[in-house]
What does this fold into?
Amino acid sequence: MFNAAGLLTSETQLHADLTKDVFLSNLTGRSYVAEHNSYDGNGELEFANQTNLDGSHIQTAYQIGQTLVSTAGEADTFKSYAADTFVFISGFGRDTVTKFHAGSGNGHDTLWLDSAQVSNFVEIQSHMTAIGSDTLVSLSPADSILLKNVQIASLKLENFHFIDHGLFHV
It folds into this structure.
């Protein structure tokens, strides 16, 4: 779909498995300029990814088991549903995750981290700092993850996955 100026504003991609992706672009009058919504085969929203005016993203999972990927160099915000995976490749910026499900129980969330920055659970623990009721995971001067309302003690090995940078395919 195009607006009066001839700019693409909406595109829908239908997939063979009945899932679909809806891309909205060149949006005006909102706090964001683009949006990507992904729907399952039943038409239920799986996740939304809004691109803000400053280039940062707000990604929200609406179903269990979504994979949300940080964008390079931006301050992205993520909201978990449950059993979600958050992917951070070196150079991702300063991101925030809300509603993160810490621990090893059913429905726990997982952070996939570039092993070039940190390669195991013992090492990642040395990068954690408590800030009030939050945990800040600082991987470099430019890359950090703020886990809102998550205590350091609640984070377990199961909340982290370390992967070689060259193997990231999401």
The chain has a mean pLDDT of 93. The chain has two domains: 1-55, 65-170. The chain is about 5% helix and 40% strand. The CA atoms of residues 47 and 61 lie 4 Å apart.
